[in-house]
TrEMBL record:
<dbReference type="GO" id="GO:0016887">
    <property type="term" value="F:ATP hydrolysis activity"/>
</dbReference>
<dbReference type="GO" id="GO:0140662">
    <property type="term" value="F:ATP-dependent protein folding chaperone"/>
</dbReference>
<keyword id="KW-0963">Cytoplasm</keyword>
<keyword id="KW-0143">Chaperone</keyword>
<feature type="domain" description="Histidine kinase/HSP90-like ATPase">
    <location>
        <begin position="26"/>
        <end position="182"/>
    </location>
</feature>
<feature type="binding site">
    <location>
        <position position="322"/>
    </location>
    <ligand>
        <name>ATP</name>
    </ligand>
</feature>
<keyword id="KW-0067">ATP-binding</keyword>
<feature type="binding site">
    <location>
        <position position="85"/>
    </location>
    <ligand>
        <name>ATP</name>
    </ligand>
</feature>
<comment type="function">
    <text>Molecular chaperone. Has ATPase activity.</text>
</comment>
<feature type="binding site">
    <location>
        <begin position="122"/>
        <end position="127"/>
    </location>
    <ligand>
        <name>ATP</name>
    </ligand>
</feature>
<dbReference type="InterPro" id="IPR001404">
    <property type="entry name" value="Hsp90_fam"/>
</dbReference>
<dbReference type="GO" id="GO:0005737">
    <property type="term" value="C:cytoplasm"/>
</dbReference>
<feature type="binding site">
    <location>
        <position position="172"/>
    </location>
    <ligand>
        <name>ATP</name>
    </ligand>
</feature>
<feature type="region of interest" description="A; substrate-binding">
    <location>
        <begin position="1"/>
        <end position="322"/>
    </location>
</feature>
<feature type="binding site">
    <location>
        <position position="93"/>
    </location>
    <ligand>
        <name>ATP</name>
    </ligand>
</feature>
<dbReference type="GO" id="GO:0051082">
    <property type="term" value="F:unfolded protein binding"/>
</dbReference>
<comment type="similarity">
    <text>Belongs to the heat shock protein 90 family.</text>
</comment>
Length: 548
């Protein structure tokens, strides 16, 4: 008690405290979830460390979370036997916001709080939510390395103190003195209810006044037939901190080439589309039920960052460090197997339930497009999943490239597409005239990124993907030769055609490279085409816009 230090919270931390305390007020229950999830994280970390470092200190203390409700003294205590914190860790973890670029993080947080307070659960504000209910909080903690224990104390108003605290066991004890209007959180039935709602799948016993209240078993290792729909949905809400129900679920196991148990979910909403900032990976990597890498960046490509869930592989070395994951050959194989399996799942869903897949495409298609432009490895699998409007679909309806190919004309060896800001703009433009006339289907790429996707892919099932604004475009010969007679080159004498072209070139000057007669127009007098075919006009527009 001799060395008490008083510190100011970092300015950002104070802001977070302010946002959390003021905007989450009606969702106070979630502070229990946040503290329990921190306790579970600390236990997971200890379980991993005990395999890699073989620590001696307090090594026989069981891995569990104990919650003590003291209704008389309006006090709630949450104790875990996880890794604990050293003095420095205590200061960094509970005095500052560790997130990189915290300014941006705060903006997103404030935005989220305005839109939907439930979204705030997606952000790592965790610990500070305790001040929604607490007058005063003490955190007593001792690291797994056996160094001296410390107590952190604060009322959440701007400062905190840290002092030495001898005689602690490994782990962390959080003692909460409840505000007068939050006394109910010292009621054990309230706490049990909240744990069942939010923390049921924490893989360590959570004991309330000595009795275990959660389902400790790892759901993904159980057989599919034993798991109910409710359990699956509950687990999704738990793992994704979500309030919605998932759109898709994929639970599978493999033995070769790797032994894998995976349970993956597609959420219902795409928060990136809602302007909530970039999603972070949210699939956890386990090895024989031991958490190796939470929210792993290594086991799925970045463009699948919308997936939530767990992957467990017995083949990974249990003591692998997080740093080693990046270059590990097994992890690379794991990533490939998972990605292919998930894309196959989507293809099956698209076939068996096209309406639902259309919904998925609307919400998450942008991620697959990102994959198509960044990951050549899965080109064919992603190509199968792409959807576009075309001259053969009703407005708002979509077609796949496979269906397009089925409808291709005899002699047609390419898939054609044209970009435009809207369907009607495209349909009234000159590029589609000859397609219409010859009854050749053309895909409408109505999003600027679509041209990048298709030109990056280059081919699909051996068919070239060709933008209709290319100068060298050659449509398959029309069945009826009548077409020929109407082409300007033949209705005007060649000499005059040349004169008109050079007149137009003179007027336009450097704005165009060349003016040539064409057989591609039906009603329009002229159109602008793309000479080198490297970039479509819409790609150029995008690049010009981003270069500004
Ligand atoms: P997050 O869990 O998203 O990192 P929190 O605000 O919930 O954010 O917690 C901040 C940090 O404090 C955690 O990352 C962890 O390092 C530390 N911490 C919180 N609770 C515990 C605990 N019970 N045991 C050990 N460390 C903890
Ligand atoms: Mg947390």
């Amino acid at each position: 008690d001799t060395k008490v230090e008083t510190r100011q919270f970092q300015a950002e931390t104070r802001k977070v405290l302010d946002i959390v305390i003021n905007s989450l007020y009606t969702e106070r229950d979630i502070f229990v979830r946040e503290l329990v999830s921190n306790a579970a994280d600390a236990l997971e970390k200890y379980r991993h460390i005990s395999l890699t470092e073989k620590p001696e200190f307090d090594k026989d203390v069981p891995l569990e979370i104990n919650i003590d409700c003291d209704a008389k003294r309006h006090r709630l205590t949450i104790t875990d036997t996880g890794i604990g914190m050293t003095r420095e860790e205590l200061e960094t973890n509970l005095g500052t916001i560790a997130h990189s670029g915290s300014g941006k993080f705060l903006e997103e947080l404030a935005e989220a709080a305005k839109k939907d307070i439930n979204l705030i659960g997606q952000f790592g504000v965790g610990f500070y939510s305790v001040f929604m209910v607490a007058k005063r909080v003490r955190v007593q903690t001792r690291s797994w390395d056996g160094s001296e224990g410390h107590e952190w104390e604060s009322d959440g108003a701007g400062t905190y103190t840290i002092r030495e605290c001898p005689g602690l066991h490994r782990g962390t004890k959080i003692i909460i003195e409840l505000k007068d209007d939050a006394e109910d959180y010292a009621n054990k039935f309230t706490i049990e209810r909240i744990i069942k709602q939010y923390s049921n799948f924490v893989p360590f016993p959570i004991k309330v006044d000595g009795k275990t209240v959660n389902t400790v078993q790892a759901i993904w290792t159980r057989s599919r037939s034993e798991i109910t729909e409710e359990e699956y949905t509950e687990f999704y809400k738990f793992i994704a901190n979500a309030v919605d129900e998932p759109m898709y679920r994929l639970h599978f196991s493999t033995d070769a080439p790797l032994a894998i148990n995976a349970l993956l979910y597609v959420p219902k909403e795409n928060y990136e589309l809602m302007g909530m900032g970039r999603m972070q990976p949210a699939v956890n990597l386990y090895c024989q039920k031991v958490l190796i890498d939470q929210h792993s960046e290594h086991i799925l490509p970045e463009w699948l960052r919308f997936l939530k869930g767990v992957v467990d592989s017995e083949d990974l070395p249990l003591n692998i460090s997080r740093q080693a994951l990046q270059d590990n050959a097994l992890v690379h194989r794991l990533r490939k197997v998972l990605t292919k399996r998930f894309l196959k799942f989507l293809a099956d869903e698209a076939k068996n339930n096209p309406e639902k897949y259309a919904e998925f495409w609307k919400t998450f298609g942008i991620f697959l497009k990102e994959g198509a432009t960044s990951d050549f490895e899965y080109r064919d699998e992603i190509g199968k999943l792409l959807r576009f409007e075309s001259s053969a679909t009703e407005p708002g309806e979509m077609t796949s490239l496979d269906d397009y190919i089925d409808r291709m004309k005899e002699g047609q060896d390419a898939i054609y597409y044209i970009n435009g800001p809207s369907r009607s703009a495209v349909e009234h433009g000159p590029y589609v005239e000859m397609f219409k006339k010859r009854d050749i289907e053309i895909i409408y790429t109505l999003e600027p990124i679509d041209d990048f996707v298709l030109s990056h892919m280059g081919t699909y099932r051996d068919k070239k993907l060709v933008s209709a604004d290319r100068a060298d475009l050659r449509l398959p010969e029309a069945a009826d030769k009548e077409d020929k007679g109407e082409t300007p080159a033949e209705t005007l004498p060649e000499e005059q055609v040349k004169e008109i072209c050079s007149f137009i070139k003179e007027v336009l000057g450097d704005k165009v490279q060349e003016v040539k007669p064409s057989t591609r127009l039906v009603d329009s007098p002229a159109m602008i085409v793309n000479v080198d075919g490297l970039m479509t006009s819409s790609m150029e527009r995008v690049l010009r816009a981003t270069a500004r």
